[in-house]
C-alpha cells in the first residue's frame, strides 16, 4: 500500500507529482491511500515527492483535475486518480461517458466547485477604508465552501487591478497592492468592517429595485442561499421587505386610479419636432462635440463657404494636412482642386466645400499617418450630418468628388468613371425624413489625379476634370 | 455620497424597476488594466437577488423620471403624481464607479424619461457612457436604453460606448401602442431597431465596436388584450428581422398612480414564465410560433404546464422517442430533456446503449421525460402516452415551480 500525503487545501502540484510517480510505477488505484494532512494551503511546502516523467492527459481531464482538487471532499484525490488510471489504460474518451458513475460523481464535484467560485465572484463585497497615501483600500471577508481562494484570485486581480485590496477567508487570504499578488494564511472574520455611505446607498438601491407585487422569496433563496447573507450588507433589509410587500400591493390595488393632473401632448410633440439643430453653426458645434466615428482624427473638419452657395462640393474625408489645420481641401488634393477650379473659371470663394466623412481616418506607420478609406458603414454613420449640413446650405447643385462622396450622397455604390456627369441625389435626411433631393453631379476626386502614373495620362485626366467642373458650373 | 443623492437614488431606482432587462451577458471579455477599472467575463454575474427572485446584476436606474410623454402603462408618464428627481451625468458616473468598486454590480443599465427633447435626453445618457469609458477607463458593462425619437447620429454615438442598446417596444401590436402610448409611433421604434441592427452587422464585418452585445427589447404582457400568440409572433419577427439578442417579457404589474385605462388586476405572473419558456423553444429548440401556440387554447398558452409538454400532449403520436436512435431535433422535443441533457445523451450513446439508470445521471428531468421515452431497458407499457390522466400525473407538483 502506498500512502500519499498532500497539503491541506487544493494541492494541485502535490497531486501532479504523485500521479507522475504512481503512473511511472504502474500503481493501481486500489493500492493507494490518499491522505491530507500537511500544514495549510499557504504554509510550508510538503516534502517534495520524487518526480516521475510527465503524464499526458486529454485537456478536458486536466481541466477537470484543476477544478476538482479544490473540492472539500476528502475522497477527491482517490477519485481523480481512478479517472487518470482508466484514461491511461485505454479509456481516452472516458469523460464523454457522462453516464459512467465515476465520471458522473466527478462532474458533480466539478460543478460544486464552479458554483462556489461563481458565488464568490458574485457575493463578495468590498468595503472601502482610507489608505495611508490618501487613496482608498478595499477589504472583504468571505467564507467559501471549498478551497477556491487561489482559483478566484485571477478574476479579482483582473477586475480590480487598479485598486489596493485584501480578501480574507477562513481558507486563506489574498492581498493585491496594484502590482503583486500575495497569499496569506487563513484569517478570522474581522470584527470592524465599517461601512461607508456607499453601503448605505446600496441598501437604498436594493430596497428600491424590489417590486412588492412579485414577491417570491423561495426563488431568491434558491439563488442566494442564506449562508451568504452575513457578508452582504443589503440582505439586512430582506425581512422587512418581505413583510411589508402584501400591504404595499394591497394599497396600490385599493388606491383609486389616478386622475390625470395635466395633459399637454403639444409639449411632447413640439419637443420631438424641434430637436434637430436649427442652424449650420449649431450643427457644426454638434459635430465638434461628437466622437469620431472612424479611428484616428484629432479634430472634426467642418465644411467651409457661404450658406446659399450655388454649388456645394463634397469630397471624401479630410487628409493629414486638413486634420492638422481643421480646414477642408488644404492639402495636395485641395491645391489641385483650387487650380482646376481656377482653370474652369469658377471662384472657389463662392463655393461650399465639405467632406462626406468629417474626420481623418488613418493608421500610424512610424512618423507617417497613412490615410485609410472609410468603409461604407462609416460613410453611412456620417450621412445624417452631411444631409443636415446640405439642408442648411441649400445649394442648387451638389458635386460629388469620387466614389465615397457619391456613395454618401446617393446611398448606393457608384462607379465614378462610368457614371460621371449629372445624377439625382435623393437627399434623404439622415433621420429618415424625405428631403427634396439635390441636383447632383459626379466626377473624380482630385487625389485620383495625383495618383495617375504617366504625365500624358495625368494631363488628359486633368483636362477632363476641368471640363467636368465647367459643365457642373453651367448646370448650377 | 450625501443624503440628497441617496434619496434620489431611491426614487430613480424605484422608477426603473419595471424594466425586465437586467442581464450583463454577451460582451467580449476585456479588462480595464492598471489605469482603468473593471472587466467583463462574457457570461455576466448576478451579484444579488431581491425578494422578488430577480437578480441584481447592473445598477438599473433612470437618469430622470420627469417625462414629457404620457404612456399609460408607465409610472413616469407626465400625468402621474409620483415624486420626481433627476441625476446629473457626474452623479451617475460616481454611483456606478462606487458600487462597482465594492463588487456590487457588473455595470450600468441606464434608462430615462424624456425631458426637454428626445435628443437632449439621449445625449445626456450617451455622455454618461462616454465619461465612464473615456475619463475613467471603465471596462464594466454598459447598457443604454435608447430613446427611439432621438436623431440617428446620437444613437450611433451611444453605440460607440455601450455594450448593449435596447429599444423598448413595450406593446406587441401597433393597435395597442396607439391606444396606450398615444404620442409614440411603432414605425419609429422599428426604424431605430433596423438602424441599430444594420450598424451592428456592419461593425461586426468591419471589426469595429458598436453595441457588441447586440440589442434587446421589452414587451409588457397583460396590460392590453394581446394574446400569447400575437406576443410570440412579434418576438419571432423581432428575432428574424432585427437580429435581436433578447426579448424580455414583463408581466404588467400594478403601479402606484395607475391610470384608469389599465386593467385593475395584474395578469398571473405564470404567464410571463410561460412566455419565457416559449421564447426559449423559439430560439433554441426549433419550434415555430404556430407549434407553440397549438399547445394552448385560443391563442393563450396553457398556464398549468410548460409549452413543450403542452405540445407533446397534443402530439402524442410522435412519442415515445428512442433515446438510442432518435435525432437531435426529436430528442429536443421530449418534455423534461433540456439541450444540455440532449447533447450529453448524443455523446454518451456513441459509447454505450443507454439504459434508464444512465439517463438518470444525464438528465435531471427524467421523471417528466419517462412516459415519452424508450431506453435500452425500458419501453413505456401499454402506450403510456395514450393514458388520459397523463396530464394530471405530470403537472401536480411541477406547477409550483417557477422559472426564476
Ligand atoms: S416616454 Fe418612456 S418614460 Fe415617458 S411615459 Fe413613455 S414609457 Fe414612460
TrEMBL record, chain A:
NCBIfam families membership: SAM_7_link_chp (TIGR03915), UDG_fam_dom (TIGR03914)
- A molecular function GO annotation: deaminated base DNA N-glycosylase activity
**Keywords on record:** 4Fe-4S, DNA damage, DNA repair, Hydrolase, Iron, Iron-sulfur, Metal-binding, Plasmid
Can you say what this protein is called?
Answer: Type-4 uracil-DNA glycosylase
Q: Where is the signal peptide?
A: none
Q: Does the keyword Transmembrane apply?
A: no
One Gene Ontology BP term is: DNA repair
UniProt source species: Azospirillum brasilense
Residue ranges of coiled coil: none
What range(s) does the Uracil-DNA glycosylase-like domain occupy?
Answer: 302-470
Sequence similarity = Belongs to the uracil-DNA glycosylase (UDG) superfamily. Type 4 (UDGa) family.
Chloroplast as UniProt keyword = no
From TrEMBL, chain B:
**Entry annotated with the keyword GTP-binding:** no
What positions does the domain Elp3/MiaA/NifB-like radical SAM core occupy? 57-278
The record's section on InterPro entries has: Aldolase_TIM, DNA_rSAM_put, Elp3/MiaA/NifB-like_rSAM, Endo/Exo/Phosphatase_dom_1, rSAM, rSAM_sf, RuvA_2-like
Provide any one GO MF term from the record. metal ion binding
Determine if Zinc is one of this entry's keywords. Answer: no
Record keywords: Iron, Iron-sulfur, Metal-binding, Plasmid, S-adenosyl-L-methionine
Name the CDD domains on file.
Radical_SAM (cd01335)
Under what name is this protein listed? DNA modification/repair radical SAM protein
Lineage of the organism: Bacteria, Pseudomonadati, Pseudomonadota, Alphaproteobacteria, Rhodospirillales
Amino acid at each position: 500500500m502506498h500512502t500519499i500525503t498532500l497539503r491541506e487545501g487544493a494541492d494541485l502540484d502535490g497531486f501532479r507529482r504523485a500521479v507522475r510517480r504512481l503512473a511511472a510505477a504502474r500503481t493501481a488505484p486500489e493500492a493507494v491511500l490518499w491522505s491530507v494532512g500537511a500544514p495549510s494551503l499557504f504554509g510550508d511546502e510538503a516534502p517534495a515527492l520524487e518526480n516521475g516523467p510527465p503524464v499526458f492527459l486529454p485537456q478536458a481531464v486536466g481541466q477537470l483535475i484543476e477544478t476538482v482538487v479544490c473540492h472539500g471532499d476528502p475522497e477527491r484525490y482517490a477519485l481523480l486518480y481512478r479517472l487518470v488510471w482508466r484514461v491511461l489504460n485505454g479509456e481516452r474518451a472516458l469523460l464523454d461517458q457522462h453516464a459512467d458513475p465515476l465520471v458522473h460523481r466527478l462532474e458533480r464535484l466539478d460543478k460544486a466547485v464552479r458554483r462556489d467560485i461563481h458565488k464568490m465572484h458574485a457575493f463578495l463585497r468590498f468595503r472601502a477604508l482610507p489608505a495611508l497615501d490618501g487613496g482608498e483600500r478595499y477589504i472583504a471577508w468571505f467564507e467559501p465552501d471549498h478551497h477556491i481562494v487561489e482559483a478566484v484570485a485571477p478574476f479579482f486581480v483582473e477586475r480590480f487591478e487598479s485598486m489596493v485590496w485584501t480578501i480574507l477567508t477562513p481558507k486563506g487570504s489574498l492581498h493585491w497592492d496594484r502590482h503583486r499578488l500575495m497569499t496569506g494564511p487563513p484569517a478570522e472574520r474581522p470584527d470592524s468592517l465599517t461601512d461607508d455611505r456607499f453601503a448605505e446607498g446600496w441598501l437604498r438601491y436594493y430596497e428600491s429595485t424590489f417590486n412588492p407585487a412579485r414577491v417570491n422569496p423561495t426563488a431568491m433563496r434558491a439563488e442566494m442561499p442564506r449562508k451568504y447573507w452575513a457578508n452582504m450588507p443589503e440582505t439586512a433589509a430582506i425581512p422587512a421587505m418581505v413583510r411589508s410587500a402584501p400591504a404595499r400591493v394591497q394599497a396600490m390595488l385599493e388606491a383609486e386610479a389616478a386622475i390625470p393632473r395635466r395633459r399637454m401632448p403639444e409639449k411632447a410633440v413640439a419637443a420631438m419636432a424641434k430637436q434637430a439643430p436649427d442652424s449650420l453653426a449649431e450643427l457644426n458645434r454638434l459635430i465638434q462635440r461628437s466622437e469620431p466615428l472612424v479611428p484616428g482624427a484629432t479634430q472634426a473638419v467642418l465644411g467651409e463657404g457661404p450658406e446659399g452657395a450655388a454649388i456645394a462640393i463634397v469630397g471624401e474625408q479630410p487628409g493629414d494636412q486638413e486634420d492638422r489645420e481643421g480646414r477642408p481641401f488644404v492639402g495636395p488634393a485641395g491645391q489641385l482642386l483650387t487650380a482646376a477650379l481656377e482653370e474652369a473659371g469658377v471662384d472657389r470663394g463662392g463655393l461650399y466645400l465639405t467632406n462626406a466623412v468629417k474626420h481623418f481616418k488613418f493608421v500610424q506607420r512610424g512618423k507617417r499617418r497613412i490615410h485609410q478609406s472609410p468603409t461604407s458603414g462609416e460613410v453611412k454613420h456620417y450621412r445624417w450630418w452631411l444631409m443636415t449640413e446640405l439642408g442648411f446650405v441649400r445649394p442648387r447643385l451638389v458635386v460629388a468628388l469620387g466614389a465615397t462622396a457619391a456613395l454618401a450622397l446617393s446611398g448606393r455604390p457608384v462607379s465614378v468613371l462610368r457614371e460621371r456627369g449629372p445624377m439625382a441625389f435623393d437627399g434623404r435626411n439622415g433621420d429618415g425624413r424625405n428631403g427634396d433631393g439635390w441636383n447632383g453631379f459626379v466626377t473624380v476626386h482630385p487625389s485620383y489625379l495625383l495618383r495617375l502614373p504617366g504625365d500624358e495620362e495625368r494631363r488628359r485626366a486633368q483636362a477632363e476634370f476641368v471640363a467636368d467642373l465647367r459643365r457642373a458650373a453651367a448646370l448650377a | 455620497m450625501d443624503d440628497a443623492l441617496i434619496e434620489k437614488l431611491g426614487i430613480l431606482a424605484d422608477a426603473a424597476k419595471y424594466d425586465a432587462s437586467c442581464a450583463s451577458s454577451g460582451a467580449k471579455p476585456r479588462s480595464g488594466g492598471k489605469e482603468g477599472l473593471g472587466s467583463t467575463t462574457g457570461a455576466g454575474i448576478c451579484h444579488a437577488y431581491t425578494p422578488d427572485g430577480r437578480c441584481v446584476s447592473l445598477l438599473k436606474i433612470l437618469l430622470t423620471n420627469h417625462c414629457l410623454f404620457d404612456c399609460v402603462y408607465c409610472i413616469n408618464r407626465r400625468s402621474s403624481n409620483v415624486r420626481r428627481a433627476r441625476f446629473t451625468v457626474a452623479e451617475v458616473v460616481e454611483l456606478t464607479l462606487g458600487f462597482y468598486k465594492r463588487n456590487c454590480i457588473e455595470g450600468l443599465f441606464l434608462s430615462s424619461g424624456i425631458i426637454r427633447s428626445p435628443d437632449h435626453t439621449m445625449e445626456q445618457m450617451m455622455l454618461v457612457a462616454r465619461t465612464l469609458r473615456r475619463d475613467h477607463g471603465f471596462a464594466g458593462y454598459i447598457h443604454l436604453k435608447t430613446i427611439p425619437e432621438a436623431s440617428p447620429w446620437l444613437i450611433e454615438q451611444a453605440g460607440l460606448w455601450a455594450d448593449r442598446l435596447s429599444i423598448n417596444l413595450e406593446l406587441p401590436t401597433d393597435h395597442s401602442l396607439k391606444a396606450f402610448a398615444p404620442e409614440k409611433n411603432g414605425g419609429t421604434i422599428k426604424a431605430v431597431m433596423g438602424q441599430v441592427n444594420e450598424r451592428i452587422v456592419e461593425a461586426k464585418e468591419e471589426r469595429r465596436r458598436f453595441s457588441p452585445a447586440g440589442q434587446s427589447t421589452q414587451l409588457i404582457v397583460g396590460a392590453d388584450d394581446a394574446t400569447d400568440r400575437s406576443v410570440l409572433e412579434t418576438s419571432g419577427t423581432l428575432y428574424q428581422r432585427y437580429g435581436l439578442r433578447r426579448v424580455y417579457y414583463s408581466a404588467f404589474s400594478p403601479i402606484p398612480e395607475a391610470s384608469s385605462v389599465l386593467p385593475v388586476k395584474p395578469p398571473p405572473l405564470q404567464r410571463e414564465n410561460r412566455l419565457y419558456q416559449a421564447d426559449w423553444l423559439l430560439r433554441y429548440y426549433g419550434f415555430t410560433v404556430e407549434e407553440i401556440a397549438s399547445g394552448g387554447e385560443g391563442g393563450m398558452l396553457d398556464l398549468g404546464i410548460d409549452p413543450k409538454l403542452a405540445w407533446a400532449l397534443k402530439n402524442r403520436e410522435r412519442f415515445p422517442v428512442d433515446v438510442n436512435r432518435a435525432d437531435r431535433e426529436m430528442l429536443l422535443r421530449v418534455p423534461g430533456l433540456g439541450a444540455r441533457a440532449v447533447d450529453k445523451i448524443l455523446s454518451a450513446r456513441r459509447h454505450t446503449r443507454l439504459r434508464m439508470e444512465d439517463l438518470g445521471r444525464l438528465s435531471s428531468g427524467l421523471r417528466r421525460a419517462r412516459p415519452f421515452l424508450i431506453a435500452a431497458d425500458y419501453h413505456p407499457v401499454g402506450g403510456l402516452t395514450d393514458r388520459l390522466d397523463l396530464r394530471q400525473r405530470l403537472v401536480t407538483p411541477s406547477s409550483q415551480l417557477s422559472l426564476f
